[in-house]
Amino acid sequence: MQTSPDRHAYPAHWEADVVLRDGGTARVRPITVDDAERLVSFYEQVSDESKYYRFFAPYPRLSAKDVHRFTHHDFVDRVGLAVTVGGEFIATVRYDRIGPGGTPASAPADEAEVAFLVQDAHQGRGVASALLEHIAAVARERGIRRFAAEVLPANTKMIKVFMDAGYTQKRSFEDGVVRLEFDLEPTDRSLAVQYAREQRAEARSVQRLLQPGSVAVVGAGRAPGGVGRSVLGNILDAGYTGRLHAVNRGLAEGETEIGGVPARRSVRDIDGPVDLAVVAVPAERVPEVVDECGEHGVQGLVVVSAGYADSGPEGRERQRALVRQARSYGMRIIGPNAFGIINTAPEVRLNASLAPESPRPGRIGLFAQSGAIGIALLSRLHRRGGGVTGVTGVSTFVSSGNRADVSGNDVLQYWYDDPHTDVALMYLESIGNPRKFTRLARRTAAAKPLVVVQGARHGGVAPQGHAVRATRLPHATVSALLRQAGVIRVDTITELVDAGLLLARQPLPAGPRVAILGNSESLGLLTYDACLSEGLRPQPPLDLTTAAAPADFHAALARALADDTCDAVVVTAIPTPGEGAPGDAALAVALRTAAAEVPAKPVLVVHVELGGLAEALSAATSTAPQARPAAPVASTPASPASPAPPAPAAPSEEARLIPAYPAAERAVRALAQAVAYGQWRRESADPGRVPEYDDIDEKGAAELIAGHLARAEGPALDQAATCELLTRYGIRVHRALPAPTPDDAAEAARALGYPVALKATAPHLRHRADLGGVRLDLADEEQLRRAYAELTELFGRPEELRPVVQSMAPRGVDTLVRAVIDPAAGAALSFGLAGPATQLLGDTAHRLIPVTDREATTLIRSVRTAPLLFGWRGSAPVDTKALEELLLRVSRLVDDHPEVVAVTLEPVVVAPKGLSVLGATVRLAPPPARDDLGPRTLPAY
Asked: Number of C-alpha atoms within 13 angstroms, CB side, residue 796?
């Protein structure tokens, strides 16, 4: 590394692993003086044409002077980055800071000339695009705001890299050269381009794991039994369509098969490419296997071996080394300590897992960080007939184990545009990057349902083996933010499966209105009560009596579905004794054919002790996926005088299948989750806007913040500075004057004007009116002095109480507004009613910042105590419009100035007209790093 005194320290934080367009990985790092030989070797492998495009002239080899110039950098005005695979360069980029005339310069010059060179064999992999993101981030860090690049017109690939990046650009043509100039400040378009490239690359990296053309099981035992041999057998039994190999270094001379599968002693000995290797050898042997796989060109690994971070500190370091080693070869890893992966697509049929039976093909994607939970999910889906799809069951399954590399975020990127997956179910024990997960979840949920259950919610510690970022937000807050992003949050894997089966094939309900019908009055009433408990709007249950025949169920369901006042139907069914009792199959046919007549409304069945009904309802009639209804279909309600329909015929291949539940509360809970998700989908189509306010002084606020941080006066602003900063954003705080003596209190009251309030602001009494530390409506000096004496008598000396005098605000509802920036989850705005009852119940709602006008409206209505704002029990409704504006102004303050890491307004008294902010605190700190605005990177190891 460079050590001369004129060199800056090596910027190790610029090193990063990236996923390229084809799904492979590479490493980006600064170029140093130690890279001379690598640079020369790299240049020798570049074509003459590419060299010409780089230097605008024939340039067959680098001179010693060139090598010195391209490897000696000060990491400020001259910077070079390289992309490496297997330790060798495949691409380079450098910038040189320039002045107005294009001559070398130093700061404060803020422009630099940039140039790229990509090895021909790696062009088209998105290498230059990734390098541009990283060199731009480096340049911004070093005070460079603009890049200039000169490109030959024939170098269309490089021109496209610059033009597609999304930055604000200027293009000119002079002396046969295209000159491009572009600002480096991220724009909405550049971020959109970056996120789209990230999605394609990460999705492709998972696709290479789930759709391999060839698989090698390393560690497959020669005799039945053992992990490796079990995985090999499961792949065989699933009917894998690609080439399968077994690897066992203990093969005897001349032995060429294991269990009928071609076998070799090493991956190196396999003829032809290997796309995926399943590694099932002891942890101490894994590095040797990774080297073999990397040298053979394997694209990805599923490591089922244990003994890594799951086994303690030594294992954690072993895991870090494993990830670094695999990435150096461009490979991604599922695991270690993984249960495996499954892809049921007919063109793949891969069961590279420890599940002894491959699940039915279907439309549900499963991700589980825990192998045990993965087994439970697969088992429950299997027992429930795989759901309600024509092709029942699972599309893909990933159990990530220790989640050292491939995570739930990567799998979400794959599912987003996977045509075989309609619903995504995830069991998470930790969220390594909540900010990114929320962003991906919002995008995915806009296209298909995403249901999540999170384990270890109350343990306070991430499971062993999971490297996660620390978050200061409570779990309830993180859950609320996920729900805002469209995630369907459930608490158990039973609820996970229940919701998934409903969402897999049933349409989303248009609203909360539920019709209930069935042959049991009691079960109908239980369903009715469950609907009310879940916030749905049920109609009175229709009792068909125990004498109801399948034709009666068909007619009643058809009428309910045709009713414009109904959004969903729950059918309850109990067994009926006697010879004429309807069979399970006949009842299933009746319900399915009736539901098929109005395919735009969901139907659920609650069945009791009908062993065959659930299977009959979800029985497959086709081997092809069924199309989801594109739009609601209007139906004419049946006339009450119409004759009973004839017994329904057998369903066609297009007949819709229906989920069945063994308990009313489970069916209704799944329906309520679908209703909430459907409402989110409709609202997310028009999320609202972040309003502009003419009276906001963003520049003045920035100067005030910068001055405070420069003076290093601590994180908390004093009262005067707090009021001044908030005033810059149109938020007025009622003055509170200190009153260390009764005379000071009287003088403060005269300055403010009676009536006034006297408050103790000591930490143990602040905002605790219930403890008696507040005296309100003091009309004159006599009342004020009496109140002062009472407070000091009850609670101690004035210096302990810290009393203040404040003018009275109009009466209203006391509320609380908070904003906080969490380093992992991002900035969040919180709202609730003030007081101990709300604190005890945890009745606080949350939204991600920036908040739109629509989100502010829903935020204040999301708390359970919201009726108090809207005239509960005859009280006067308060000014919620003023409250919404306050929320939006606080959101703008935190979004505009990331140095504002916490804001608390308490209490905010909302009156019938206007509001009053009676207390405020603001904390400042250097802004936390936001890697979501930086270049694409994989988590560091």
From this structure: 9
